[in-house]
Specification:
There is one protein chain. This protein is mainly α. The chain has one domain: Farnesyl Diphosphate Synthase (Orthogonal Bundle). Helix content is about 75%, strand content about 0%. The protein has 16 helices and 2 strands. A two-stranded antiparallel ribbon has the order 1-2. Strand 1 and strand 2 form a beta hairpin.
């Protein structure tokens, strides 16, 4: 399979064949098992395949520096890129469950879809509780699928051990980052206000920046045989860009167009996300205004006018402008890491294109 033109074609084909095999395997375990596997397949549809792209370009950035190397990624890279997308789907299922989100990519979130299936089937018991429990297991199934795909691809890969170690690190980081994210919604009251932004960046690093960009780049690079200097360059680019990517996500979570993001306007405000945007806002508010802000933040019943008022507060304190400046700074750090880096010239151009798309996106 070729990844020279667009690795997403090969990755999508690999995902389709893998899911088809899982559906066939589930056909012998009854209609409930088939429903569960179908829900997992649905969780894999859509999305930008960003992590797969960075994995493939990470591979190419190293392969281009090697004499006689092909420009087409092998089955090991395609499988690893596909595994990243399955893991991402698992993280989204669990994230929506934790946040009690109703939608994802303009469709019902997994736990809501499973809740609906419970009702359609006419089963007994609490449909919402069923949806939550089933989604928890669905995320676990997708994590298992991601491991299965990775191992299939690494079966004969020459640099498999290093790739496995990195993938395991990524899984640990995301899990810890997810915990820190939910912990911060309660623990912020015991931390000094001027430390909140630093704490939010720590969450962003573990939960998103590393696994969204840095680790996919490194995974592809390691499969191509990257040396220490090349890994340092990929990390030097990937981590700050990952932070900029997450900060853009935070801005969209408050100000994004629901028709584009597939999520309600101000959803992060209703969920009470303790982002850098929120931390910067609270730093500039007096005690009384901060108390009102905190009382509204995290209220799932916020009306549109209350969302608008919170948005105005965020803009009025200069928090939005500060986050935009931080995004620009991180993007600049990422670009400087590519200057003179021991990476393939064409791949570096592709990385710069992806970086621009990651920080200027509307969804």
């Amino acid at each position: 399979m070729s990844a020279s033109a667009d690795p997403i074609v090969a990755v999508s084909q690999r995902l389709e064949s893998f899911v088809a095999d899982q559906v066939v395997a589930a056909s012998s375990i009854g209609p409930e098992g088939a429903l569960f596997v179908d829900a997992a397949a649905a969780a894999l549809s859509g999305g930008k395949r960003l992590r797969a792209r960075f994995c493939a370009i990470g591979w190419r950035a190293i392969a281009e520096t090697q004499p006689g190397a092909t420009a087409d990624a092998g089955a090991d890279v395609i499988a690893a890129a596909a595994a990243l997308e399955v893991f991402h789907a698992a993280a989204l299922v669990h994230d929506d469950l934790i946040d009690n989100s109703d939608t994802r990519r303009g469709r019902p979130a997994a736990h809501r879809a499973l809740e609906h299936q419970h009702g359609v089937a006419g089963w007994s018991g609490d449909a919402a509780a069923f949806g939550r429990s089933a989604a928890l297991l669905l995320g676990d199934l997708l994590v298992a699928w991601s491991d299965d795909l990775l191992e299939e691809g690494l079966a004969s890969a020459p640099h498999a051990d290093a790739a496995r170690r990195l993938y395991a690190l990524m899984r640990r980081d995301v899990t810890i980052g997810q915990f820190l994210d939910i912990a911060e919604e309660a623990a912020y009251v015991t931390a000094p206000t001027d430390e909140h932004a630093e704490r939010a960046l720590r969450v962003a690093s573990l939960k998103s920046a590393r696994y969204s960009i840095e680790h996919p780049l490194l995974l592809g690079g390691l499969l191509a045989g990257a040396d220490a200097a090349q890994c340092e360059a990929l990390s030097g680019f990937g981590h700050p860009l990952g932070l900029a990517f997450q900060l853009r996500d935070d801005v969209l979570g408050v100000f994004g167009d629901s028709a584009v993001t597939g999520k309600p306007v101000g959803d992060d405000l209703r969920e009470g996300k303790r982002t850098v945007l929120v931390a910067y806002t609270r730093e500039r508010l007096d005690a009384g205004a901060r108390r009102v802000f905190d009382e509204l933040l995290g209220d799932p019943t916020l009306e549109d006018d209350q969302i608008a008022a919170l948005q105005q507060t965020i803009v009025g304190t200069g928090a939005l402008a500060r986050v935009e400046e931080l995004i620009t700074r991180f993007a600049g750090d990422a670009d400087r890491a590519l200057r003179g880096a021991p990476l393939g010239t064409h791949a570096v151009g592709m990385l710069r294109d992806l970086a621009r798309d990651a920080i200027t996106r509307a969804a």
